Amino acid sequence: MTSERDSAPASASAGTRIWRMLDERFQLSGLVSFLGHKEVPVGSHSMVWYYLGGVSLFFFVVQIATGILLLMNYQVGENTSYESMKHLVGRVPFGWLIRSIHCWSAHLMSLAVLAHLFSVLFLKAYRKPRELTWYTGFAMLGIVLGFGFSGYLLPWNELSYFATAVGTDSVKSVPIIGPWMLRVLRGGEEVSVQTLYRFFALHVCILPLVMGAFIGAHLLFIQRQGMAEPLEHDSSRETKPRPRGMPFFPNFAMRDLLLWVICLNILALLAVALPFGPGIPGMEWELGAKANPLKPAYPGIKPEWYFLSVYQMLREFPAHLLGMEGPQACLLLASILGAIAFAIPLLDRNAAKGKPSPLFTDLGVAGLLFLGFLTLKAWDVGVHAPLGKDPAGDPAMAATIARTAALWIIGIGLAAAALRRLKWGHSAFSFTAAVLLQAALNGFAHLSWLASGGAALALLAVLFLTGRVRRGVSAAALLLLALAAPSTARADEKGAATVPATASAPGHVVEEAWPVDFQKLFTEVDKKTGPVLSEKAKARFRSLPSHAQELFFVAAKAGTLSSAAHLATLLALDIDDRKVELILGDNCVLCHSNPDLPDEILFKPREKGDANAHLDLREIVSDVHFRGGLMCAGCHGGKPTDAEMSAEIGKRWPASDLRHKDRSWIPEFCARCHSSSEFMRGYNPSLPVDQLLKYRTSKHGQLLLGKKDSKAAQCVSCHGVHGIRPPDSTNSLVYRENIPATCGKCHADAAYMKGYTLEDGRTPIPTNQLEQYRKSVHGLALLGKHDSGAPACNGCHGNHAALPPHTEFVSQVCRACHAANGSLFDGSPHKKAFLAHGWPECETCHGKHDIAVPTDEMLRPGPKALCHDCHSKYGKPICDETATFFYDSITALRDSHAALGKDVDRLAERGFDVDELRFQSSAVSDALRKTRLGIHTFDRSDFIRNSEAASEAETALRSAASAGWAEYRFRRNGLVLASGLISVFGVLLYLKIRQTDRKSGPKS
Amino acid sequence: MSANRTDTEEGKGLSRRRWIDILLGTSFAAWMGAVVYPVLRYLTPLKDGGGSNKATLTDAQKQELASKGFLIARVGTDRVLLFKYKEQKLKALSAKCTHEGCTVQLVPADGIIWCACHNGKFSLDGRVISGPPPRPLAAFSVEGDLKGVVTVIKPGSTA
After folding, report:
1. What is the mean pLDDT of residues A261-277?
2. Across-strand partners of B90?
3. Which residue of chain B is at minimal alpha-carbon distance from A91?
């Protein structure tokens, strides 16, 4: 090469002249000559492994370049990080591409670094004298993971926020300094904007500088020592001469360049085809929603794929293990495994002497299988969990996941073992066997991952003791064995959670001072089921203040608290201490809630084994009256402190044989308080006091009070008794969603309603209203979608003044919500026609209890026709034509809008930011809704005004979607062009490599 | 004879080598173009990056304009000088000196607009009176008055 340059004629090319000029000044030929003499070992081994370091470096350079470009648009900050990324991806030309390349390249870099590390492990390139190269490489793997972790948070979206919260949280498990490290890492107690600032500094400044230093050291070591030769060269050095290697420059360097070109082409292809990643958990970077610390985390949040194995390991650990917390134990295990991997050059004594060390090859394979099994489990292989559900939480799904992962790993492991045995004659499979055993036990024998690991380590120990494992790895095996004990022994969580029965804290009566009769109840043990009082109930009693505890002692002494079961029922109530005192101070409650008292004094027959059968205390403590401090005596009379039934009780009501036959006393009885504004002011001043007045005017009131019909509904029928909740409680009988069922108790019961007629006095009142309502648009909205705006029965019929609305007023009821439709109808030609025929306005077309979801098909002749049926009898031909015109216009808009919606979805699938398009689409939906509403004018000109507005909105959406597709085609064509150019360059480079090889002699 | 053939082969080899070099260089340049083009497009700011072509004055700005007699406000990416002109009407001129782009100021006592950087002077209708500025200050249109809503609109824009 040099001689060619020397003999170049005076009329040399411009390139040659420039080379000469530079060479003269900087003596570059010396460098070229050095690189030319540098050789890459050639032998029977594959050379592919020598390129992986270069590929990792290439991706790192891509990261630096795209990272710098991203910095020109990214603004770190709570209110800017997400917004600037959204702007970058959605608006900045090629911003999506730069981000996509940065993300893809990050993942590919991690993959390349891991592949490089394992190739070095399998080729034993870490052996003396290259230990330091291994250590620096290992450190760089850590830095790469740090890059991934810190970069993940920077878009400040939901996924990144929670992944960082979980990821950083594990740091606190480090003994002693853990909590401090957590605070330093997060810049506070929680993941906040301070964390964002720190991670930003780490990602764009600290880590790149550290990485640069390590890359420099790593390359320097390689330059000084050359590339590692295969192990067989060491062992055959004395018998055979050292084979000649491939010149680093230009032969190897050009191959390196060719591989980089291929990598770049793959990167471009992935970045354009899948700009937000392949959508596998741990490999997706769609921006989604902005981080909101106050929003609950959703299930299924997973870290990046390279952290999945550690993430899964954390999940496999119980809450406590050998006195340590689960995460602490997991961190310890992960650290030990990491330390073993780091120290391999020290542990592998055979390779250091140039001898084969097959056990470390097996250790590498086993390591891959071990990480692979955990990763597959974290990926939830084998199950399709519904969105928002964590399959690992379901035992059946978790078993399927473990089984599928085990199948995969055992399949891959056996295939690898067969290949190693048949192709390379390997004989060491101990570690692989241990890992496969763990997978099998976990996947098929339903043993926990840790217990399976313990069994696998026991196998390893047996192999070790029987001499199968040789001295070279004894240190590693011993270290692993140290973990066997923690894996097999599980801490007894139940025992750990038990509250010690120690003496009570100040403010409570000490246990020694408890009366004997109470202590007996407290500690009573059932021969079959064990202690009657649960630990929780006992802890509840111990936490009560001393005066509340004393009330229990008094009740136990008086016999009103007669059994342990009764005590357990009282202590299980979810009420505060004050309410406990209230109940314990009321003998009515104590006696009537005592399951040991005879059935005669009960209100209803007792069911076997039901402690609350008589007076359900859970109902009592939920009652709005009880919560307001009104106890039994308030309605029943008597005194709460009476030990015996007082004669006062019952005096307020009619005699028991009469009061059940004639219920007309009830409204008046409740109204004693509820009609008194003076009285109600002391409890609920905002509650109206006109219920009785209204009730008297209602159909129910007229029947009960006027005709003494005790079947008619009164206060208790709708509100219940002893468990009356406020109407906004979901358990209340008059809670909006419960009203249809409450009314339906009577109105849907044909036997009960028999004999009741409509106003004509002949037609029986139908009993299918509830059934019809449930299927109606209102029923579906209220009961199905829990839309509290939808009306229940009382929405149209009223509450206490419940009356059926008369035909002529039905439309006024509808107008309470559908005001716009009503006013449009008022100006329409239909108004007159309906009046003339005496038809109710809305009900005529939409029905009553069975109001269906209106469809466009109602407008045209057909099975669902509505307009046509009437028009054919009463209307003119123009009426039908107008209806058809409405139908054609609306369906044309509807169908094209639906098609555009699909178009937008397809763009989203192709990785486009479609927020703006979706916003425009919702504007079209809005305009379409207005157009449909406009039908109620039954006038073409009004309708056209609305439909034109919808049409305009749709045109704007169409042109925006077209622009999106044009951008898509541009991206696709750009990719084809760029890919073509890179490929041509690659092919030519390949030809050049062949040419160079021919010139300097054929090489492998 | 054989020597001749070898020469010819070498010649062919040389020309092929040169062709590969040329194609390799060309395809490398084209490939670099494919890399550089998106980067250049990425670095080119968006045309509407500065926002709107019109601005409505806030109450605070109107107060400042009423008390001081002039105000320098932002309209999109432009700096605009607003001041009370004849018969208390409002006038708006670009506040960017046409010489080197410094921000000009109103000197009410002299009834001129002055640029402190190189002593450029403009009349109140934007014409150059003295100094190095090569062109007059561009006029912006103003709608409304200080009692109501004041909107400043960039010339040539439809907004």
Report:
1. 90
2. B84
3. B46
> Of A61-70, A483-492, A833-842, which one has max mean pLDDT?
A61-70
N-term to C-term CA, chain A: 21
**B92 DSSP β-pair partners:** B82, B140
d(CA A555, CA A581): 11
How confident is residue A486, by pLDDT bands cut at 50, 70 and 90? Answer: very low
Q: How far does the CA of residue A96 sit from the closest CA of chain B (Å)?
A: 10
Query: Cβ contact (<8 Å) for A981 and B20?
Result: no
Q: What is the DSSP letter of A283?
A: B
Tens digit of each residue's pLDDT (9 = 90 or more) over A271-301: 988 888 887 877 888 888 899 888 887 767 7
CA distance A101 to A818: 53
CA distance A64 to A84: 19
ipTM metric: 0.72
More confident residue, A223 or A485: A223
The mean pLDDT of chain A is 84
| Distance, CA of A250 to CA of A332 (rounded, Å) | 48
Local confidence band at B14 (pLDDT 50, 70, 90 cut-offs): low
Residue A361: partners with Cβ closer than 8 Å, 6 or more residues away: A122, A124, A420, A426, A428
* pLDDT for res A11: 53
pLDDT band at A489 (very low <50, low <70, confident <90, very high): very low
3-state secondary structure of B60: helix
pLDDT at A238: 59
Going by the DSSP 8-state scheme, the letter that residue B84 receives in this structure is: E
Q: For chain A, give every domain's residue range.
A: 1-37, 43-236+243-289, 331-494, 506-652, 878-986
Looking at the complex, does the CB of residue B49 fall below 8 Å from at least one CB of chain A?
no
**B-proximal residues of A, 92-131, CB under 8 Å:** 92-95, 97-98
Say if CB A60 and CB A109 are below 8 A apart.
Answer: yes
Long-range own/partner contacts, residues A389-393 (CB < 8 A, 24 or more apart): A389/A299, A389/A300, A390/A299, A390/A300, A392/A315, A393/A299
Backbone dihedral angles phi then psi of residue B79, each to the nearest 5 degrees: -100, 130
Looking at residue A834, its amino acid is F
Q: Does residue A991 have a pLDDT over 80?
A: yes
Helix (H) or strand (E) holding A125: none
Report pLDDT for B16: 78
Query: For residue A280, what is the DSSP state?
Result: B
In DSSP notation, A550-599 reads HHHHHHHHHTSS--HHHHHHHHTS---HHHHHHHHT-HHHHHHT-TTS-G
**Residue B140 scores a pLDDT above 90:** yes
Chain A contact set for B43 (CB, 8 A): 69, 72
Domain ranges of chain B: 1-44, 54-153
Q: Does domain A43-236+243-289 have CATH number 3.40.630.30?
A: no
On chain B, the residues whose CB falls within 8 A of the CB of A988 are 20, 23-24, 27
Question: From CA A698, how far away is CA A681, in angstroms rounded?
Answer: 26
A45 pLDDT band (50/70/90 cuts)? low
Q: Is the CB of residue B159 less than 8 Å from the CB of residue B153? A: yes
Listed as own residue / partner, the contacts of A27-36 with beta carbons closer than 8 Å and 24 or more positions apart are A29/A2, A29/A5, A32/A1, A32/A249, A33/A2, A35/A247, A35/A248, A35/A249, A35/A253, A36/A1, A36/A247, A36/A248, A36/A249, A36/A250
Out of 2.60.40.10, 2.102.10.10, 3.40.50.10490, 2.70.150.10, which CATH number does the structure's domain B54-153 have?
2.102.10.10
pLDDT at A660 over 60: yes
pLDDT of amino acid B89? 87
Respond yes or no on whether the N-terminal peptide bond of residue A129 is cis (omega within 30° of 0): yes
Output the CA–CA distances (angstroms, integers) from residue A737 to A691, A780, A793, B50, in the order listed: 21, 11, 10, 52
Q: What is the dihedral of CA A46, A47, A51, A53, to 10 degrees?
A: 70
